[in-house]
Amino acid sequence: YKRITVKSLVDMKKRGEKISMLTAYDYSMAKIMDGAGIDVILVGDSASNVMAGYETTLPMTLDHMIYHAKSVVNAISRSLVVVDLPFGTYQSDPKEALRSSIRIMKESGAHAIKLEGGKEIKESIKRILHAGIPVMGHLGLTPQSIYKFGTYTVRAKDEEEAEKLKSDAKMLERLGCFAVVLEKVPAKLAREVAESVSIPVIGIGAGNGCDGQVLVVHDMLGMTKEFNPRFLRRYLDLYSEMTGAFQRYAEDVKSGDFPSEDEQY
Ligand code: KIV
Ligand code: NA
């Protein structure tokens, strides 16, 4: 395999080839994903929800993210690895944002960072890009601002927010970001944004007009049960499969069926 780079992604958009992206937080999952040909692996701060069981992404620390990122990087031979800057590690000032990004790049070996927001964090994005660190933007529903929004419903449905999103996307392109995630915005708006910028727009709940798609791996594998947004397509029902496996194992242990003659020394 040829390694995916930030440049390959921009070339893919030019060719009209869609970009596949999934989240991963550990070595074993990332190894399967990399082998399966997923273009971009996002070490998302959604680790807070699916790995650690928190209600929001806010508790995630830089040390947590670096641990997950390093575990993923250890598995990779082709995919591009992007790591979320967690809440509170880039919002106060550009220097802090750069310091956090450098720690991620140095200590995990990842290839790029992602952060949430538009013009509010312009100076931070500039600073990080100046240091040679590729940046992926994230607009629309930005879960680190959940207490400002109040709900996880679709963003940018009104004209004012849609206009801000469009100009933020333009700004991210102008600054030199290599891609941008659009989360939970109307499909029509996402398509418009994708057509207006040369960098890839990766959608989650943002419709088919995007240049690529991203899902949280636990959701697409059907490991999560209560999370049922319209945009989620489940490719497996791992919740049931795993429940069955655990139950059969417990039965086999209790009945003395496991281990058999062949399964011992
Ligand atoms: O943390 C995450 O999983 C994300 C994706 C949903 C884009 O940011
Ligand atoms: Na995230």
TrEMBL record:
Keywords (A to Z) from UniProt: Cytoplasm, Magnesium, Metal-binding, Methyltransferase, Pantothenate biosynthesis, Transferase
SUPFAM superfamilies named in the record: Phosphoenolpyruvate/pyruvate domain (SSF51621)
InterPro entries: Pantoate_hydroxy_MeTrfase, Pyrv/PenolPyrv_kinase-like_dom, Pyrv_kinase-like_dom_sf
Pathway: Cofactor biosynthesis; (R)-pantothenate biosynthesis; (R)-pantoate from 3-methyl-2-oxobutanoate: step 1/2
One GO cellular component term noted in the UniProt record for this chain: cytoplasm
Substrates-to-products reaction catalysed: (6R)-5,10-methylene-5,6,7,8-tetrahydrofolate + 3-methyl-2-oxobutanoate + H2O = 2-dehydropantoate + (6S)-5,6,7,8-tetrahydrofolate
Gene3D superfamilies per record: Phosphoenolpyruvate-binding domains
Residue ranges of the TM segments: none
Active site per the UniProt annotation: 183
Ranges in a coiled coil: none
Compartment(s): Cytoplasm
Enzyme Commission number(s) from the entry: 2.1.2.11
Binding residues annotated for Mg(2+), in chain numbering: 45, 84, 116
One GO-annotated biological process of the protein: pantothenate biosynthetic process
Top enzyme category: transferase
Record: residues binding 3-methyl-2-oxobutanoate: 45-46, 84, 114
Record carries keyword Transmembrane: no
Co-factor binding comment: Binds 1 Mg(2+) ion per subunit.
Molecular-function GO terms, alphabetical: 3-methyl-2-oxobutanoate hydroxymethyltransferase activity; magnesium ion binding; methyltransferase activity
Cofactor(s) recorded in Swiss-Prot or TrEMBL: Mg(2+)
Described function: Catalyzes the reversible reaction in which hydroxymethyl group from 5,10-methylenetetrahydrofolate is transferred onto alpha-ketoisovalerate to form ketopantoate.
Subunit structure: Homodecamer; pentamer of dimers.
Recorded family membership: Belongs to the PanB family.
NCBIfam families: panB, PRK00311.1
Name of the protein in its database record: 3-methyl-2-oxobutanoate hydroxymethyltransferase
Organism of this sequence: Zunongwangia mangrovi
Lineage: Bacteria, Pseudomonadati, Bacteroidota, Flavobacteriia, Flavobacteriales
